[in-house]
Amino acid sequence: MGQAGLGADELPAAVVNGAALRRATPLRLASMLGLTYRTDGRPVDLVVVGAGPAGLAAAVYAASEGLDTILLDRTGLGGQAAKSARIENYLGFPQGVSGEHLTRLTMVQALKFGVRIYSPCAVAGVDLTDDRRPAVLLDNGARIDCRAVITATGADYRRLDVPRWSAFEQTGCIRYAATELDVRGYENQPVTVVGGANSAGQAALSLAGHGATVNLVLRGTDLGARMSSYLTDRIRAHPLIRLHTGSAVRELTGDDRLTSVVVERPDGRQDRLESGALFCFIGARPMSGWLSGIATDENGFVRTDGGLPFQTSAARVFAVGDLRAGSIKRVATAVGEGASAVSSVHAALAGD
């Protein structure tokens, strides 16, 4: 700090090419490193917004098939998948692969085929005035005119406002699905499921079916308010499921791994429940707010019922991955959608 002439009030800081960047932010640092979008006059066939598995796949396949492609992401490459410590059911990786490593490999592929990647690069909206020339509008006022857009901005799973949530999420102790892979390893262990709709009920029964002792925590007082009766009947009858209605998780404890959760009762009393994992099913928010003029369902997920697969209500805008209404929330599915959407892009551009 002394050599760079930096004071404590100027942190965080970075030194780039000998110059000190005081009170650095990711966006300012990216700008200094040339990672933010700058127009270079080259024509653009396709802009892919969102660099999770679906967006990365779309960019790789589009560029490999001759489309001049730009890939943008607000924060960084990989999306939610990049947070996975190990993905064990992705084809070609019998020993499993971390989301970070898979993202890195895919980024190298994208660069190999000539994809221009800009991140962090926040998108503010899309201009659909010319139905044959959509334009992506950036937060900094820049505009990228193109021939087609694939949007893959995903959905942000709702999280509880509890200290250390992110830390336990990164170690895999907090999960947003209860597939066979997710529940594996928790047989005969105590776990917590949070949520009051069908997905939470199904997760609780699946975990209990594998021998886990399940604490099902929901804010509402009536289990049947948002859950189907076939589930509520089985949950109430299952000896390994303990129901906590009118309750909320207030604390997570443990070192690197989750060991217990603190639940607050309707009367304010707090109890500590032993728990090796927390399965959270309180909904997801689609990242679709920037897509004004594009049809969505009642929950904000983008509808893709146009004439071509993955086509939205705008002829040259396509949606893939978790952002899309009716999508299956899996990495392999997202990759397939991103790759498949490129075929629809070619079909839409065929008349140019």
From TrEMBL:
InterPro entries: FAD/NAD-bd_sf, FAD/NAD-binding_dom, Ferredoxin-NADP_redctase_2. It comes from Asanoa ishikariensis. Keywords: Flavoprotein, Oxidoreductase. GO terms for molecular function: thioredoxin-disulfide reductase (NADPH) activity. This is Thioredoxin reductase (NADPH). Pfam families: Pyr_redox_2 (PF07992). The keyword Oxidoreductase applies. Residues 45-338 form the FAD/NAD(P)-binding domain. It catalyses: [thioredoxin]-dithiol + NADP(+) = [thioredoxin]-disulfide + NADPH + H(+). It comes from the Bacteria. Transmembrane segments: none annotated.
